[in-house]
Amino acid sequence: MSNKDIKEISQVSEELLCKYIHACHILHYHGLVDAYGHISVRLSPSTFLMSRYMAPPLVASTKDLVVYKVEDGEAVAADAQRGFSERFIHSETYKAYPKTQSVLHSHSLDVVPFSISSIPLQACFHRAGFLGTTVPVWDVADVYREYPSYNQDMKVTNTKLGSALAKSHGPAVNGQPKYPIVLMRGHGFVATSDMLEMTVLRGIYTAQNAKVQMAATGLGGQVRVLAEREGRETGKTGVVKPWPLWVLEVEDNSIYRNHLSKKE
Ligand SMILES: [Zn+2]
Fold it and tell me: Which of the residues are catalytic?
């Protein structure tokens, strides 16, 4: 990714815009987003890209995309279309972790139970080694205690809430959060990484891991999760193999339109 300070959609490569639209569709195809939830990608140290206020599966062209400022989560253009109320999840994560390139916010129903249970989400199978042995749960009530006048709708609708959530990813290690995945109590989760496709992968396999852990717990015996080193060493797999498959799945499905794709 270029270090150039990108402030307009016209400055972004068509390849990245096309990939972003595919990412929105893939997340819907795999059940990570429905009408709600969103993904973003960093454009420069001070800006990031996200769709306007709309259901991710319906994002189709550049007119659906908006450039935002990392500094305050507001659109760069004064006349930008309405954005997501929870865009501060993204802006504050980019601010806290300068090497983070993409952020996903999902309300996956497979994952939410682990945000309200005393049983922690842990890496249970090899595709989800990136979860490691600790997946923090951020509790918005901690912020409500500090700011009792806030609307307690569980949503991250300002920079203070976004900053508190971002901190729960732990200290920055080489510019990346120590904990790439954080659950949000009674709400959903946040996934981060150093590339758009990897954030999609982490979202998909976080939800699959939750399913596996739930199924194993239901068997009634002891659940044996991955050891720290196992998680670390299995977490290195890339996106080269799954990404073309995921793109094909959404391009062959008529619900999704991507006007930047060569297939259109
Ligand atoms: Zn949300």
Answer: 86
- Written as six digits, the tokens of 230 are 């196992």
Tokens of 99: 């090497």
Residues, beta carbon < 5 Å, ion ligand 1: 86
Relative orientation angle of helices 88-96 and 159-167, to the nearest 10 degrees = 50
Give the pLDDT confidence of 222-231 residue by residue, as tens digits: 999 999 999 9
Q: What is the pLDDT of residues 136-194, one digit of tens each?
A: 999 999 999 999 999 999 999 999 999 999 999 999 999 999 999 999 999 999 999 99
Å from CA of 188 to ligand 1 middle: 6
46-56 pLDDT, tens digit per residue, is: 999 999 999 99
The architecture in CATH of the region 9-251 reads 3-Layer(aba) Sandwich (3.40)
Residue 81 alpha carbon to ligand 1 centre in Å = 19
Centre of ligand 1 to C-alpha 132, Å, is 24
